[in-house]
Design goal:
Helix 6 (243-264) crosses helix 7 (282-292) and helix 8 (313-321) packs across helix 10. Strand 14 and strand 15 form a beta hairpin. Residues 1-17 have low confidence and may be disordered. This protein starts with 19 loop residues before the first strand and ends with a strand. It is elongated and about 95 Å long. The chain has helices at residues 88-95, 100-106, 148-176, 182-186, 219-225, 243-264, 282-292, 313-321, 331-335, 340-347, 351-354, 386-391, 410-438, and strands at residues 20-23, 26-27, 33-34, 48-51, 57-58, 61-64, 72-74, 81-83, 112-114, 228-229, 232-234, 274-279, 299-305, 367-369, 378-380, 444-447. The strands form six sheets. The chain has a five-stranded parallel β-sheet with strand order 11-6-12-13-16, with helices on both faces. A three-stranded antiparallel β-sheet has the order 8-7-9, with no helix packed on it. The protein has a two-stranded parallel ribbon with strand order 1-4. The protein is of the alpha/beta class.
Amino acid sequence: GIYMVDKSDNEAKIGECQHTSYHLPQWDENGKCSWVDIQRQHKSLNAEAKCIVPPTKVIPVIFIPGIMGTNLMSTNTNKKEIWRGDSLASVYWEWHSKGGHQRQQSLHPDYTRVDNRGDIEKKILTPFSDDGCLFPSRKSRNWGAALGFSYGRFLNVFQAALLDDWQTELVNYEETYRFNDPETMKKIDIALKHEGSLSKLVNKKFNTHEKEDEQVLTPEELNHFKRFLFPVHVFGYNWLQDNKTSAESLKTYIDDVLRLYKKKHGYGLAQEKVIIVTHSMGGLVARYASQVLGMNNKILGIVHGVIPDLGSPAAYRRMKVGAEGEGFMGTAGHVLGATGKELMPVLARAPAALQLLPHPKYRSPWLTIKRHYHDNDLFLPKSKDPFSEIYLQKEAWWRLYESDILDKKKIISDKNWQDYTQLMDTPVRKFMYALENAGYHPETYIFYGKK
């Protein structure tokens, strides 16, 4: 605690008791703590001011969205919004009437980049705000890069869950010891005290499918958790470009975030590693940065939400027939394209989308070609090489890409095919094989929905 007494020569009055006050922290714009409400007291009061100290060690948490989960803008000087998801309605009206040519021109990896100007939730769900001072502002932590209607509320609740327990404990402590008379506290209804978000989960079982081996949050784990600060950052990336390029940017971003808390914000404590939380394709970006680019020594652990670890047959279906009905209220169909004619020209130029196709190690066969007589059904791939049997097939009707779907002129169609095969042969194939051989971060956790 901090003691502040009046050093004047006035003598203490006989019989006056000690006066103790408790003070909550406040943070300046650089993340430093102070206790500004302490008042000088006459020395006769034998006053004691106790400053309640918050955690000061920081472990940054970086969230990586999935495909379509980052706002994009034009690379032109006008910085035109290309893909902005502040609300579902705005997305629908912007995209539902666009044809294949318009989508192809707008959603091009070479002419788009990350746009962090999206709407950010302002509501604070914890006793002390995370939007500036305690942490850098949400905007500077790149929250505006994430799709608002998909991730806005999630980011807010996620950040609150990482802060609520120690903050609630501080407030409870100050309220509990505000009174000089301990007997007074016994009369205060203990039910009025708030309980932190994770405190409610201690020793609680959720009766999951694996309930015999279900682990529970222990009091010791919660106490350890409350000793750290977890600022949530967003790594937005261009979900059209090669995921390898995005992983290289993530590598730089991890270093930038660690440097921020070492040198500029807070006390520079515990700044060695980050925790990464991913959604969908963001997991592939994180795995590549960690295991291929060597960033695993700067990552404490990775939590993957629904990672398409070895790709997904849904990517093939999307390319062939469009994305109608996918996403919340069919959003993917409205934006990327509801039909193959609308969507195929976009995906054929987007390395990241092609990298979502089933990898060579994906369990084969994953494609069934139904024929009139069932005994003649075709199951692909046969040789565990989807490139030769499916992706680079030019004539077979089950081929992945139809180079003339929009442009019937042979010279244009041939150029389309050449560009597509170059993408498939180099960035797509190399990315898949690199990930397959790279393994996983030793502290990797995953979760999926039941359906």
